[in-house]
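Annex B. Sample input.
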Amino acid sequence: MTAALARTTLLDAGTWRERRRAHEDRVDAWLTPHLARRHRGEKHPVEDFLFTYYSHRPAQLRRWHPGAGVVLRDADPAEFGRDYRAGAAGVTLDTDGVRARRAESITWIRALLTATADRPAQLGCFGMHEWAMVYRQTQEEVRHNAWPLRLTPERTAEVVEERGVRCSHFDAYRFFTAPARPLNLLTPTRESQHAHEQPGCLHANMDLYKWAYKLSPLVPGELVADAFALAREIRTLDMRASPYDLADLGYPPVRVETPEGRAEYATAQRGFAERAAGLRARLLEAVPA
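Annex B, continued. Sample output.
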């Protein structure tokens, strides 16, 4: 028997239904405007990112799971999916079955989360990864070309060259322009991800959402939503500190090309790292080795 099953929690029908309703209401506040924009064919470089970059569909985020070791009284396993079983006390997740089927993935994610948590946070990148993604490109070539750059392409390139790039995150690095990659202090790869990921990185902390939904339904829906909420805030800082001018969308810039902007960025980055540490610990606790 796994450690998760050894700590069984019994929820009566009123309790688990209220938890499910609260989760759905919370997620709907994020989904409703996104789905409305999608219906209209509109794009938003900040609010839509988590729904387009990550593979978790809106309906999956909205679907509540109680997590491992929870028994739901007066429930129908068909409401929750193929991994749930009915027993004498109620419906519960087939934790051992899910863990056996996803053993390799769980081991990989746990190792990454553990390695990241064991390192000190590095806060000296100042968001230059977003600048490296537009380095030496024209306004027409940049990824979010519907929104203007704050500086000229020439001045944007100068900022990258003056500050340097210290990105440890492969999934950010892979979007660098070809001329920007040699400027990075590291050459991160998927194979070296466990060796490079560090807890101050905005993208590593945003990715806690990805690891949470990949561990679902072993983790409760509320934890997935907590990780989404943090990722949403991080994405806001990421784009406010980027070379794009999003003031018309309500995002005043964090001018990391200035000392004041870099100080503002590092303070926010430190706060996100502290909050992410708690989420990382909760994920590791939810899927014990």
